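Predict fold of N-acetyltransferase domain-containing protein; 146 aa.
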Amino acid sequence: MATIRETLAPSAGEIDVLRQIIRTANSAVRSEPDGYQPVGFMLPDAETGETIGGLNGHAGYDWLFVQYLAVPPELRGQGVGSALLQRAEQWARERGLIGIWLDTFAFGAPDFYRRHGFSEFATIEGFPKGSRRHYFLKRLNTVASP
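Predicted 3D structure, encoded as tokens:
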């Protein structure tokens, strides 16, 4: 039997190994590649140029997954989050992606995503305890179901 090593900090290289195993297995049953492409839209500080917020995610199987959308408190309510999300949507449309999906917590920004045309497709109650995790999608292109 194989040895199992626990880690609370898997390295980027270790995660890449896992990703490659999954991609290889998936490609054995899928006729087209997943098209995995990381993407980010960063907010540089006006004075230092350091990243102070932004949006990142990845495209795969013709969908854009938004992993993080983070706006510093001093810039909230000024349309910065909307601009980041719109830029990501533009990027996805330029590549002919089907849509965008993401998740957020109830204490995060579910109403923000609803205002931007996202539809909720799943909710996990009690994740985290006493709250909910919401899953959203927004279709950009109409596609026929298989």
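The longest strand covers residues 51-60.
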